[in-house]
Design a protein that fits this description.
There is one protein chain. The chain is built from eight helices and three strands. The protein has 213 residues and is mainly alpha-helical. Helix 1 runs parallel beside helix 6 and helix 2 crosses helix 4. The longest helix has 26 residues. The radius of gyration is 20 Å and the shape is elongated.
Length: 213
């Protein structure tokens, strides 16, 4: 699974319709260029590829009054919407995803109904516990990593990471059950994208050929 697909689909979906530079600007606003592979080239490539796959619809708009080249605006299709939610649900329940995919999924968590988000997070914990049980058939954390030589440190890292993930997820579930955040169907959603022309304090400022397309 690729975090860039989920991030780009989610950014376009939140805008309704956006050109490539807006998507790049949003991902930098979220800091995704620091914790994922959301670099300009990857973003523009993903937009083009997903347009070819029918997940996004391309709209060519007129040149700007300043004389710039025509830009392509992207709008998510019904197929793209299905793919966005498929990726989101799969990322939330999987216990073996990389941090960038898990982070992207948490960023779009409120796009789901609260009850479904809670169910997916509980399933995540169940899978973590199931995985932990298979590992501890061969490695007993209480006996320490030395029982397996220095390789035991790898097992120790895996188990501690799983335990930390499960504990954090339980905390998130508690907060959501207490009414934290606004989920789909509950009212005015949180707006996490920049409006046209809004300054991005986290922009890298690096130019890319795709910025003007």
């Amino acid at each position: 699974m690729s975090a860039i697909r989920l991030l780009v689909l989610g950014a376009v979906r939140q805008h309704g319709r956006a050109h490539g530079y807006q998507v790049r600007n949003d991902l930098e606003y979220w800091g995704a260029h620091e914790w994922s592979n959301a670099k300009p080239g990857s973003i523009y490539h993903a937009l083009k590829q997903m347009a070819k796959q029918g997940l996004l619809h391309e709209h060519e708009i007129a040149p700007s009054t300043a004389g710039g080249p025509p830009r392509t605006e992207y709008e998510i299709t019904d197929l793209g919407d299905e793919e966005f939610f498929r990726l989101l649900r799969a990322s939330l329940v999987s216990s073996d995803q990389k941090a960038d995919i898990q982070s992207a999924a948490i960023g779009f968590l409120v796009e789901l109904p609260r009850a479904e988000a809670l169910a997916l997070l509980r399933e995540r914990i169940r899978r973590i516990e199931e995985w932990r049980a298979t590992v501890t058939e061969h490695y007993i954390p209480e006996d320490g990593p030395r029982q397996l030589g220095h390789i035991g440190e790898i097992m120790n890292l895996w188990v501690h990471s799983a335990d930390s993930d499960a504990a954090w997820t339980r905390g998130l579930i508690d907060r959501l059950e207490s009414g934290a955040y606004t989920f789909a169907g509950e009212g005015e959603p949180f707006v996490g994208v920049l409006t046209e022309g809004q300054e991005n304090p986290y922009a890298t400022g690096e130019r890319h050929p795709g910025d003007d397309r």
